[in-house]
Design goal:
Blueprint (H helix, E strand, L loop, with lengths): L4 E6 L14 E2 L2 E2 H11 L4 E6 L4 H7 L5 E4 L7 H11 L4 E6 L7 H12 L4 E6 L2 E2 L3 E4 L1 H8 L6 H6 L5 E4 L19
Helix pairs in contact: 1-4, 3-5
GO molecular function: nucleotidyltransferase activity
Protein name: CTP molybdopterin cytidylyltransferase
Organism: Sandaracinus amylolyticus
Length: 188
């Protein structure tokens, strides 16, 4: 799967959380390490992490070996700006995009999204229990549209304008997790 790159978006300030989410732990592993591992275990060899101030240096030191990172110079511009920074740093034509807020995503979900790209999908997203979640996978024209999109739009809005996304049914409740659903008691 060397033609698929992974992107992990972790440039947020974590202001609402009151702590550095990427460095939180779950089952003894940081959220950033879990996001990278889910992609690597799915066969994604090239994983790129997007970081931003004020936490970039701390998170960069915690990254698993061999993981590249890039800095978003202005993460306050929004998640699309981080995605554009990553896409500019990557020449990949097929990408799986993970969010740091979803630390329980399984490698099998990432494999399922890649299989959807293999079958010709330009946008694939997981669905569990009738609800869509993260990560998502994109290819070709979807990547180009995101690279060129104005920052006043969201990635979701841009992708909705491309083609209908392929929903991939998964047996992974982790695709619905985010910081709001993970209580402090579940953090290790």
């Amino acid at each position: 799967m060397s033609d698929v790159a992974g992107i992990v978006l972790a440039a947020g300030r974590s202001a609402r959380a009151g702590r550095v989410k990427a460095l939180d732990t779950l089952d003894g592993e940081t959220w950033i390490a879990r996001a990278v591992r889910a992609q690597r275990d799915a066969g994604v060899e090239r994983v790129l992490v997007v970081l931003g101030e004020p936490h970039a240096a701390r998170i960069a030191r915690a990254l698993p070996e061999g993981v590249r990172w890039v800095r978003n110079p202005a993460p306050a511009r929004g998640m699309l700006s981080s995605l554009q920074v990553a896409l500019a740093a990557s020449d990949a034509e097929r990408v799986v995009v993970s969010l740091i807020d979803h630390p329980r995503v399984r490698a099998s979900t990432v494999r399922g999204l890649i299989a959807a790209l293999d079958a010709g999908a330009l946008v694939a997203r997981p669905r569990f229990g009738g609800r869509r979640g993260h990560p998502y996978a994109i290819a070709g024209d979807a990547i180009r549209a995101l690279r060129e999109a104005p920052l006043d739009r969201s990635a979701r809005d841009v992708l909705l304008g491309i083609v209908p996304a392929l929903d991939v049914e998964v047996d992974d409740p982790g695709v619905l997790d985010d910081l709001d659903h993970l209580g402090r008691s579940s953090l290790g």
